[in-house]
Write the structure tokens for this entry.
Amino acid sequence: RQIKTSVDGKLNNTNTIGVEVIAKDDTDILPIQEEAAAKLYDLLQKKYPDLGPDKVYGHGEINTHKQVTEGSTIAGFLRNKYGKKKVASSE
């Protein structure tokens, strides 16, 4: 089993929910995929009420072995829709 800890040392595959959005790259995300992610977020928030937009991350924000932009489109969309502004890049 592969478990890699995040940049902050707290997040990993045992205490997070990973969601895959299929696209060529992060600039290829379609509006329908953003809306599907929002519907999933709504469902997850019902089960996990503490799941605020401040707890939504793109892969590239927390995993050093991923591109910085990986997941940023969906994460940014959800933060803007639900209230938290985009996290600044660590570059």
